[in-house]
C-alpha cells in the first residue's frame, strides 16, 4: 500500500537517481548523516601546544586589518562590531571612515567583516590576546609612503581621502598576512591548526588578489597630485618592505622586470610570487621589521607604537638590541 503511494509520487527518473545515490553511499561506507563530516584518525592531534603562539601571532595583523577595513567602510571598528574580540586592548589611533565610492566601500566592508570572522576563528580555536595599540593615522601612512619614495610627498599622503589612496594603503596590509601564513604553515602539527591556517591563508590571499587586481586595472593612473603612477606606488611599497625585512626579494609591485614575472616571461605581475609562481613566505621577525617600519623586530613603531602582542612578538621585542 505504502509502496504504491511512493511510486505514484516519485518518477522513475528520481527513483533511479536515488538508487544511484544509495549505492554510492554504500560504496563509500557513509550514511547520509555523516556524508559531509570530515573525520580524522583518532590518534591525530587537533591543536598541538606548539601551534598556539605561531597562529596567535597572526592576531596582530588581523586586528590591524579588521580596524582599518571596518573603519574605512563604516566609520566604526571592532568596539562597535564585536567588542569582546578586542579583549580589552586600547582603541586604534587616527583611524576613520574613508571617502570611498560605492563599489570600493562594499568590498572593504566585506573585507572588514571577514577579518571579524578570522579573529573569532583564531580566538575560538586556540585563544587570543588583547588588541595591540594600532596607529592607523593618516600621518603614519604618509610616513610609510615617504619612506617608500625616499622623499616627502606633498601634500602628505592621506589613505582616507579617496578610493585609490585607500586601495594603495590597503596594498600595504593583507599581503603581510598572506606571506606570514605561508611561513607558518610548515611548523604546524595539529590538523585543526592546519585547517584553520589554510582557511585564513585562502581568504587573505584572496583579499590581496582583489586589491592587486583593482590597482592593476588602474596601473597607469597618475595618483594626484604626486605625479606617480599606481604601478610606481606598488613598486616603491614592495621595495620598501623588502628593504625593511632584509631577506631579499619577497615582495613585488604590479609591473616587474620580466625575470621576476611568471616563468620569467612577463612583466605583468598581478600576483606576487617566486620563480615557480609559489607565494613567498616570511617569518614573524621579518613581518615585524616591516610593520614596525624600523627594520628591527625589537624596535616597535609604525603601525604598532608599543609593539605586537602575544609570546612571539613580545619575546622578539625583548631580544637584545
Ligand atoms: C610627471 O612625471 C613625468 C614622468 O616622470 C615627467 O615627464 C613630467 O615632467 C612630470 N610632470 C610634472 C608636472 O612634474
UniProtKB/TrEMBL annotation:
Keywords: Signal
Pfam families: Ferritin_2
Signal sequence, renumbered to the chain: 1-28
Taxonomy, superkingdom: Eukaryota
InterPro entries: Pigment-catalase-like
Descriptive protein name: Desiccation-related protein PCC13-62
Organism: Kingdonia uniflora
